[in-house]
Design goal:
heterodimer, A: mainly alpha, two-stranded antiparallel ribbon, two-stranded antiparallel sheet, 8 helices, about 70% helix, B: mainly alpha, Hydantoin permease, 22 helices, globular
Chain lengths: ~180, ~500
């Protein structure tokens, strides 16, 4: 399991590196990282959103999807191998799907706005941006819940605590003259 | 009350600084050895650690640079904030438990101690210690300069201190910082962090309510003004574009678990089981304080576009102009105290880890043992480090900003790229090797240096930090997989099994 997980993590980061190179080599678009505001000094504008995503939109979507997968895989890596149960996998899988949903809603909401030119609002922000502000943040909250509520089940069980105490006790014995 | 605005602000900041000095005196009685000085003797409760952790995360950048970035590039800058839940979660899943166990087991007092124990390698210890020293110099210089500039701005508004110079402000602010760090070490640092964190949370909350009242239609009116002016700025990827935004998500999110001043605080709690409470409390505190970052930036961008406020001279003026236009003097006083709190809480953390690297880790890596009378030398080096950083700050301000800019590049992204793989993955994977660690650290430092020195601008807003982070991850795992699996010490093997 341990070797499989690290290989999966390695595969994800290699794929991400490949995507990054592909984006680097993609046909350049003028002002793809913003340009000066025409009137107000010190302010940047984005300009033509469609043009900025024309050559790299799909690659960038994949990059972020892989990053979300990487986050849950790294979280799993942080759990001792023998505690990586099916139950934990289900929780982490659910977290990934939830954060992927938020990412998809944000990305597709942006695309829809570029096509229609109109948007609704949710709690102060345009809908696509609201998915970014609230969805992205909430997307990882299940990880906090798993860690805090599942602490004695997955992270540091009473059995783990006893093992660590024994380890410390053994070391103290060895230190004694 | 409005007539005494500047005096009230100066008074609030003065009260805060007096508190810091008193805390230093109180903590001095509790600092008896280098373990107390550097990691508070692993005796802190969950509330103290939570507040110290989040207040150190949010430096002066969060109060000055953050709102300025939102003003300048719109929603792109939000990505540094919304990643906090993933960042804190990863930090706790990957680092919190094992760093605390190893610290107790091997009596470690610094991050380089931890990696040296994990990899049984003095080379890894040395490289991490050098990375920390370089990063600390850049961070400290910029924080001290920011503190002095803000102090000069608020004090020069009073009749009594109208002609105060930047040098005097550097001396005053550095003196307070040095005093409580030298007398009370990390104990003073974390207890001032508690109050600093509380001030930042209150300031964030009050600013949000103030921001909501600037436009009749609240935040939605502000965002619709920005959207009408430039659609992309208020859409999810902002003016800086999708790759700049996703790069920040990557570097700030994963990178949190690679910040030495933060992970060192994970060694200080009394009980490992407190981590389950520290995580949600830290995240809550960070979000409350970060409300200021987003709300000021959005309101100021909308207010300038709408003509309510004249265009800012510099984007970083967003917070101070917002405070002078839209808040009453008492709130402005609290927020300015919060700003000093944010800067000082990060600075004291960096002073502490920088001192540990210089007097404990680098000598240990070179000579095999640290210097004698560590507590005495820790105090001396803390003073010297702060003086050198303050000198750098003044030199960069008056003469040449290049050196501090280069050292500044050793900021969050370099720490993330060089430390995250070695620490966060290395503490959870027995196959990680010293060769993998050395390769990843060297690659991360080189890429960040080259991008900074050559002034490389990558297409689509891809940052050098993102490239170095992805590269170091690939190299760390790849090189570890092809080099011989290390023979771990029995106690380390046991810790990695728990």
């Amino acid at each position: 399991m341990a070797s499989k997980l690290i290989y999966l993590i390695f595969a994800i980061v290699v794929l991400m590196a490949g995507i990054l190179i592909a984006i680097w080599l993609a046909e350049p678009v003028a002002n793809s990282a913003g340009m000066a505001h025409p009137i107000i000094p010190g302010m940047q504008v984005g300009g033509d959103g469609g043009a900025r995503l024309a050559h790299i939109g799909t690659l960038a979507f994949l990059f972020q999807s892989l990053l979300l997968l990487l986050i849950v895989c790294l979280s799993a890596l942080g759990v001792a191998e023998h505690r990586r149960t099916t139950e934990l996998a289900a929780y982490l899988g659910g977290t990934f799907l939830f954060s992927l949903l938020a990412w998809w809603q944000m990305y597709s909401g942006h695309q829809a706005y570029m096509e229609s030119g109109s948007t609704g609002y949710f709690m102060g922000f345009p809908v696509a941006t609201a998915w970014q502000v609230y969805g992205t943040w909430l997307g990882a909250i299940p990880l906090i819940v798993i860690y805090s509520l599942g602490f004695r089940k997955f992270i540091f069980t009473l059995e783990d605590e006893a093992k660590f105490d024994q380890l410390m006790a053994r070391q103290a014995e060895q230190m004694e003259p | 009350m409005e007539a005494y605005r500047q005096e009230i602000i100066v008074g609030a900041v003065a009260v805060y600084m007096i508190f810091c000095v008193l805390t230093g005196l109180w903590a001095m009685k509790r600092t008896k050895n280098s373990s107390d000085f550097f990691i508070a003797g692993r005796s802190l409760g969950p509330i103290v650690v939570s507040l110290a952790l989040f207040s150190s995360t949010l430096s002066g950048f969060g109060f000055v640079g953050g709102p300025g970035l939102v003003y300048s590039i719109g929603v792109s800058a939000f990505w540094m904030v919304v990643i906090s839940s993933s960042g804190y979660a990863l930090g706790f899943f990957l680092v919190a438990k094992r760093i605390r166990m190893i610290a107790e087991l091997r009596n470690c007092i610094s991050l380089p101690d931890i990696v040296a124990a994990r990899y049984n390698s003095e080379a890894v210890r040395f490289l991490i210690a050098v990375t920390i020293v370089l990063g600390v110099m850049g961070y400290l210089a910029t924080q001290i300069l920011a503190m002095a500039v803000v102090m000069q701005a608020i004090m020069s508004g009073t009749v009594m201190f109208a002609d105060i110079g930047l040098l005097a402000c550097v001396v005053i602010s550095s003196a307070v910082l040095i005093f409580y760090c030298v007398t009370g070490g990390i104990i003073a640092s974390v207890y001032t962090d508690v109050v600093q964190g509380a001030i930042m949370m209150i300031a964030g909350c009050l600013i949000l309510f103030t921001a909501m009242s600037v436009f009749d239609g609240g935040i939605q009116e502000a965002t619709s003004i920005i959207l009408t002016d430039d659609t992309e700025s208020m859409m999810p990827f902002g003016a800086a574009g999708i790759m700049a935004s996703l790069g920040w998500f990557f570097v700030f999110g994963l990178g949190l678990a690679g910040q030495p001043h933060l992970v060192t605080k994970m060694m200080m709690n009394k009980n490992i089981s407190d981590n389950r409470r520290i995580l949600p409390m830290s995240l809550f505190g960070y979000i409350m304080a970060a409300l200021l970052w987003i709300s000021i930036g959005v309101i100021m961008r909308a207010a300038v576009i709408d003509g309510v406020v004249p265009a800012l001279t510099l984007p970083d003026d967003a917070a101070s102009v917002f405070l002078s236009f839209f808040t009453n003097p008492l709130l402005a006083g609290i927020v300015f105290a919060g700003l000093f709190a944010a800067i000082m809480s990060t600075s004291d953390a960096f002073l502490n880890i920088g001192t540990a690297a210089i007097i404990h880790d680098i000598p240990k890596a070179i000579r095999g043992h640290s210097i004698k009378n560590e507590l005495f030398w820790a105090r001396i080096v803390t003073v010297l480090l702060a003086i050198v950083a303050a000198s750098f700050a003044l030199y960069s301000h008056y003469k040449d900003a290049t050196l501090v800019a280069i050292l500044g590049a050793f900021g969050w992204a370099t720490f993330a790229a060089s430390i995250f793989p070695v620490l966060a993955i290395g503490l959870n994977w027995k196959g990680a090797t010293a060769m993998g660690a050395v390769t990843a650290i060297v690659a991360a430092l080189l890429i960040n240096f080259v991008v900074q020195l050559a002034g490389l601008v990558l297409p689509y807003g891809i940052s050098g930090g993102l490239v170095s982070f992805v590269t170091s991850l690939v190299l760390f795992i790849g090189v570890s997989l092809i080099t011989q699996r290390p023979e771990l010490a029995a106690d380390m093997e046991a810790v990695l099994d728990i």
